[in-house]
Amino acid sequence: VRTATPVLQQTRSLFNPAFNSNYANFIVLGLIAVSIQLVSLLAASQSGAREFGGGSAELQELSRNLFITVAAKSAAYIAILWPVCWLAMHVPKWWLGFPVKGSEWLLAAVILWFVTNMVMLGIAISTFSKDALLASEVCAVITMPNFLASGFTWPVFAMPGGFAAIAYLLPMNPFVFAVRKITLMGAGVYDLTRELLLFAVWSAAAGMLALAGAYLLRRDGEPGKAHP
């Protein structure tokens, strides 16, 4: 008489941030991501608006090459903001024991790329506005929708179609999605294809806006004065 092999029954939980992991882990990281975006935008836009609007800018003296001009302006902010933002993203891990399952190097690279995008966007805002108050209002308009449609309060796939499309157009969302995958899922570079493509799109958009703003300032002559 043959003995039937018993059916082995076991459960395997797939990734679900709302059930098999503490969703508070990512809410805290998401709030830090909002802070990183706002600080990066404000640092570049506020100082740039005061510089360009007050006529004290050295934009024309840096280089005749607009790319070098924007890169030089961006590098100073990035050199200060990137280490600070990296530390801010790791405070929950060191202090509260929040998990970071993925590569630390990949997370650092994603933070660097996001800060670079936001700094270039902040420089673009400052060159077009030339006013610190107006620049801060534009930064607020860009940042506020992230609290509702960035994917860290609830998943984007649970949103209605229109809101989901808007969510993917926000500049912070590639960063939020990438951080969630790296920290909670242990994702690698090949798992971040969509996020990296969105990063590239925003890099191109922010870079072109910053170059356009630098061109307008140079065309108008001395920053802070109207073009005759």
Brief account:
By secondary structure, the protein is mainly α. Helices cover 69% and strands 0% of the residues. The radius of gyration is 22 Å and the shape is elongated.
Q: Can you offer a commentary on this structure?
A:
- The chain has 228 residues and is mostly helical.
- α1 runs antiparallel to α8, α3 packs across α4 and α8 packs antiparallel against α9.
- The protein has one domain.
- It is built from 9 helices and no strands.
- Helices cover 69% and strands 0% of the residues.
- The longest helix has 31 residues.
- The radius of gyration is 22 Å and the shape is elongated.
Q: What is the fold's blueprint, element by element?
A:
Elements: H1 23-53, H2 59-62, H3 66-96, H4 104-129, H5 132-143, H6 146-149, H7 161-169, H8 173-185, H9 193-219
